[in-house]
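Hey L., structure's done. Input below.
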Amino acid sequence: MGLGDWWDRHGVPRVIRFACGMPAIMKLRSQVVPLASGDVFELGCGGGINQQFYNAAAIPRYAGIDPGGKLLEYARAKAVKKGWQADIRDGIGEAIPFEDNSFDTVVCTYTMCSVQDQAQVVREMRRILKPGGRLLFLEHGRAPDADVARFQNRLEPWWKPFAGGCHLTRPVTEAVRAGGFEVEPMGARYLPKTPRSIGWNEWGVGIKAGA
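Output:
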């Protein structure tokens, strides 16, 4: 096993759990995730970080996928501790292993930055939602300030190997809207006490209109 493989298997899961569990991020999660109800699917559920914020009484069915082996172990352990039935599978967002129109809510937090094909993932999330279903998203991405965006472009090639393929320059709300959702923005800002190059966040609700 090379150093890169070792880092991907052992270092990246720990970096993700630490970075995605910072207080400012957890505060945002606590505002978005509890809005989930009905049959819920979570993209990038590895680590189980969001499970503490779900209202299990409002969720008769919970499912999720993540490609990370170690992160999946964390998520399944969290589900056991929470005491609810959870269908947590190994999978990728470009080919979500569930039927069309299966879920009332899809939750996606700090995941679209690291998928291979962002546009395809958004289409897949829309596909598995029932008509009128909601996509709750909370993501970091391309900053609105030109000077910050330029630095993100320079930093991204170095950042991606360290952070498990995480992109700094991807649009967030714009990408959800382009995927066929009617978007209700909830907020957008730089995280406090965080470098602006990695700190721009957007969150909101995407509604699946039509069939």
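The beta strands are 39-43, 61-66, 86-90, 103-109, 129-140, 181-190, 200-208. The first helix runs from residue 3 to 19.

-- N.
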